[in-house]
């Protein structure tokens, strides 16, 4: 059903482009932004690799609505690293990595981190749109994606995403 070749990413299941649009439709009326691999593909405008999850940033105060909408699709919480992030999974194995954001009046946001007093920062300009299956979707900017790809040893898929972001920067 969703096997594709996600086994190369360490997961037996994939989150497909159709899945992303289904999830976003269920979350209509809430503020969410796609990050991670799907966020990069949204900026590029096409799927470039298999994805074993979907990273979504959301307004912290809308979390009850986000969780209720995802529960309607069968998602339940399977991992909690609150307040930094948490994961929900559905019976088919689809995973969504959720990142709660606290917004300031100027449109910027912060996300808690594991380092006390050192939150992840999101400038107001990083909340942009991209395209998945010819549908405009909310996502994080290339600058924010590049920022989040710093400070760790990149995996093969990270190198792939960085190359795509570099191509966007050059274009």
Automatic annotation (TrEMBL):
GO molecular function: transferase activity
Pfam families assigned to the protein according to its UniProt record, in alphabetical order: Aminoglyc_resit (PF10706)
InterPro entries: Aminoglyc_AdlTrfase
Keyword annotations from UniProtKB, A to Z: Transferase
Highest taxon of the lineage: Bacteria
Protein's recorded name: Lincosamide nucleotidyltransferase A/C/D/E
